[in-house]
């Protein structure tokens, strides 16, 4: 039986939605009325799509699935920085450039018909290792796109395409389209594992553990989305995860070198004998000397008591009191339901978008990844994507009042007299 038949399920409903702006009220610690909190839904389509700017095609599952339980991921993988790009049940964190029957079937992202184009991550990445599995019908022509826009036009210049295609194709499976041809023997009807590393000017790929591609680009591309292609024929993808590369440590585990303290505030920041950055007591902040605009930030955190409140602020106005976007730290939930955060939830963008699920637990180390790129922000907790938000407000120097894409400091928040949290392994990479 062909993969096309195996993937038959009710098709998505293609809806055209009018994009609307977010309420421009102030953010955390403001005395102004709260801004509207948006549900954790996929971000608006990429600006490079060919659809009119006020009306974009969005593919939705029907009915909309709740945030599923996280897929298994080991502590070792989390410590290495791995995040999951696909939750195994929904297309949260993905968007389609064209009308096609992208859907989730038996824990895999599948497509078989519709207009040729990409399903691509709402987030952009620069240097990383990408892991996934794929299978397809024998004559399928598909691909995995790297550092791409939503609607690439030329794989030789504006993206990298790891091809999935028969041997009679000019670029068979494992090739980098228009750049390097390889010819491994592949039975596409079986699941195959691909691990692609994109690091500066180097693109390499393992297919089922064997090195099949090693390419150096004389004119390397920068950041971009990761895309899955419908070209011709049915194809399926599963177990998609990513590890950011080329991150730099911003906390040395010994002292607060590289950080700006505010002793006039009540919080007490210190480095413990274990090499952790600890914050206790009342309201305050510790901010980086370095300023960042588009970045990947990874860190580990532990809340030493239940339901403590803190946050990671970014693109802050340096020296001002918590004038930045806030990725919340608060592991409480309502009525014991992990899909209903008690106060925005760990990984939520405070007063902008609640976390769709509480993944972390108090009194246990948890892992957080924040990616900010242009107007888009996404957060993963313990490798699970909990928020996916695009700031559609008008530009403003103060991110409490509007879109800020300018570089700013990163801050750790001391919230109130009960505050007692520790942080470690803080590292960042600019996009």
How would you characterize this protein structure?
With 431 residues, this protein is mainly beta. It has two domains: 3-244, Jelly Rolls (Sandwich), CATH 2.60.120; 248-430, Sandwich (Jelly Rolls). The protein contains two helices and 30 strands. Strands 3, 5, 6, 8, 11, 12, 13 and 15 form an eight-stranded antiparallel beta sheet that branches. Strands 16, 18, 19, 21, 26, 27, 28 and 30 form an eight-stranded antiparallel beta sheet that branches. The longest helix is centred in the N-terminal third of the chain and has 6 residues, at 75-80. It is elongated, with a radius of gyration of 22 Å. The relative contact order is 0.17. The model is unreliable at 1-36 and 41-63 (pLDDT under 50).
Strand and helix map with partners:
Elements (H helix, E strand, L loop, with lengths): L2 H4 L6 E6 L36 E6 L14 H6 L2 E2 L9 E3 L6 E3 L2 E4 L5 E5 L6 E9 L5 E7 L11 E5 L27 E8 L2 E6 L2 E7 L8 E6 L4 E10 L3 E2 L9 E2 L7 E4 L5 E4 L3 E5 L6 E9 L6 E7 L8 E5 L3 E2 L2 E5 L24 E8 L2 E6 L2 E7 L18 E6 L5 E11 L1
Antiparallel strand pairs: 1-2, 3-15, 4-7, 5-6, 6-15, 7-14, 8-11, 8-15, 9-10, 9-14, 11-12, 12-13, 16-30, 17-20, 18-19, 19-30, 20-29, 21-26, 21-30, 22-23, 22-29, 24-25, 26-27, 27-28
